[in-house]
Amino acid sequence: MKCIYCGHSESKVLDSRNSDETNSIRRRRECLNCGRRFTTYESVERVPVVVIKKDGSKQPFDREKLKRGIVKACEKRNIKMETIEEVLDNIEKRLQSMTTQEVASTRLAELALSALKALDEIAYVRYALVYKNFDNTFELKTFLSLL
Ligand SMILES: [Zn+2]
Question: Alpha-carbon distance 41 to 44, whole Å?
């Protein structure tokens, strides 16, 4: 994706948003050469992925929803939004490369957790507290002891 000002080919992504109407991703980018910002629209031919929740109900995969959970876990951890976008991109790539179009919500949480674990342990624990549904403090202690 070349910079529209100087033609440099490397830029970092500051923010991504899905646009369902146009089936594209709008990305706010900053050129690594001249530092100017621009917006790109990338059309995506994505396979719709369905998330199966614990109660068996199904929902279309929602990147924004996943992002909200991850952003919350990363609050005040000095993690850049572009890093979070990368995490989301990687998870989406994983989902797109699956052989089925369905993913269990628990599996999705595991994908987010393994990415967070590599990134920041506090963010990892926070995310786990919300999404792992520990039944009791013993389970929680066991989980924490594995850190
Ligand atoms: Zn540039």
Answer: 9
- Buried-state track 51-75, b at ≥16 Cβ within 10 A, e below 16: bbeeeeeeeebebeebbebbeebbe
State how far the alpha carbon of 130 is from the alpha carbons of 24, 28, 103, 134, in Å.
Answer: 30, 29, 19, 9
Tokens of 56: 């068996």
Q: Cα(62) to centroid of ligand 1, in Å?
A: 32
pTM passes above 0.85:
no
**Whether 101 and 132 share a structural domain:** yes
**123 and 53 co-located in one domain:** yes
Using the predicted structure, report yes or no on whether residue 146 has a pLDDT greater than 70.
yes
C-alpha 13 – ligand 1 centre gap (Å): 13
The alpha carbon of 42 and the centre of ligand 1 are apart by a number of angstroms equal to 18
